[in-house]
Design a protein that fits this description.
The protein is mostly helical and about 375 residues long. Helix content is about 60%, strand content about 5%. The protein contains 13 helices and 5 strands. Strand 1 (about 80) and strand 2 form a beta hairpin.
């Protein structure tokens, strides 16, 4: 196996942690704001995301503390191909123990938040509900199994968790094998969870371009899988090839760094599918002054009528029930009617908001009956 490169930029690691911390706080805050905008109500997926945020912030704190003390980006003196025990190595072992316990909770909560979100968005599909009901208890069991295995890896002899490497490896459980299994199953479960909505999306009666756009939102989660693969690779190389990689603290830095990246990216990924209302609100302000796009090219009308449940939950997805498929004439705030000069008659009347009175809401408001020769083109039911 090759010798892995070392990470020595302590200031860069601190800046990275600070940026991640800001981003995940904003992501969860906007998630709850999106629920407020749509009045969809808060669900189990939201509260699980909030709990995951709490533990991810704790994880970032552990990572930042280890970096400030020099345990991350530091180095172990090596003698005869084996790291020499130093006070800094003991400190690194303590941070490693705390980090590995906390990361198990973070990964478990993020996975559960995604599963409950999928169940909320695609719950009208019975086969999909069954898959969710199977994956949720499996994820809970996976999380608890590795959490307690990590906590009691040295039994109740707590000081053994930060003993010199030689003693730790001989007196505690086979931590190398446990972490290998954890890393591999973490990647596999992420792959299953992220890919779950894709078949449902492609069974919808929607244009291919819209299916691709929706699928791309979920496949952003592959960034998390990529970070997990990098973490697993670094772990395998540094743990099973000590002859070429004897610097314990430098190896510890690489493994913890990729776990830190994976945890924070996972937090962002689990919030992204819920942020459409927030993006639409701020994007709508920019576009609200545009009433037409030119003669013959069409324009957009907005309405405050009720939306589908999937839209309330933050995604612009078509309803899956037959009754909603039949509502082809209903206007909603997430429906675009593109009208082009041609043949036929289109009529519409009313205010853009649900109360029938003018308001300061951005968008086009109309009270005038429209009756002219236009052809409806590309109209879809949501």
């Amino acid at each position: 196996m090759p010798t892995v490169p070392h990470v020595d930029d302590r200031n860069g690691v601190i800046v990275m942690t600070a940026v991640f911390t800001l981003l995940i706080i904003l992501a969860v805050a906007f998630r709850f704001y999106a629920r407020h905008l749509t009045r969809a109500g808060y669900g189990a997926d939201d509260w699980l995301a909030a709990a995951a945020l709490f533990f991810t912030l704790a994880l970032n704190g552990i990572f930042l503390g280890a970096t400030i003390e020099g345990a991350i980006t530091g180095h172990s003196p090596v003698r005869d191909g084996w790291p020499v025990t130093t006070p800094l190595q003991i400190v690194a072992q303590k941070y490693k123990y705390a980090f590995q316990i906390t990361e198990k909770v973070v990964f478990g909560l993020v996975k559960l938040s995604l599963l409950f979100l999928w169940k909320r968005l695609f719950g009208s599909s019975k086969p999909f509900r069954i898959v969710c009901r199977v994956m949720i208890p499996i994820t809970v069991a996976w999380t608890l199994a590795f959490l307690f295995t990590t906590i009691f890896q040295c039994g109740t002899r707590w000081t053994m968790n930060w003993a010199p490497i030689g003693i730790f490896l001989t007196q505690c459980i086979e931590s190398l094998n446990v972490l290998t299994v954890f890393s591999v199953t973490d990647i596999l479960s992420d792959l299953i969870i992220i890919a779950m909505p894709v078949p449902v999306i492609w069974r919808l009666h929607q244009p291919t371009r819209k299916k691709i756009a929706l699928t791309s939102i979920f496949l952003v989660g592959f960034f998390t899988i990529g970070a997990g693969i990098a973490r697993t690779y670094m772990y395998l190389v540094t743990s099973y090839d000590k002859e070429d990689n004897p610097d314990f603290i430098a190896d510890f830095t690489l493994c913890i760094l990729w776990s830190e990246i994976e945890a924070n990216v996972a937090m962002l990924v689990c919030c992204m599918p819920t942020l459409a209302p927030v993006i639409g609100k701020f994007g709508g302000r920019i576009l609200s002054s545009i009433h037409t796009t030119g003669s013959g090219k069409g324009f957009r009308l907005s309405s405050g009528h009720k939306r589908s449940k999937a839209t309330d939950d933050g995604l612009e997805l078509p309803a899956l029930s037959n009754s909603r498929r039949k509502q082809s004439s209903r206007l909603s705030s997430d429906t675009q009617l593109l009208w082009q000069e041609g043949h036929g008659t289109v009529t519409a009347a009313g205010y853009a908001n649900a109360h029938g009175q003018p308001s300061n809401t951005p968008g086009i408001m109309a009270r005038t009956d429209i009756s002219t020769t236009y052809e409806v083109k590309g109209s879809e039911s949501v």
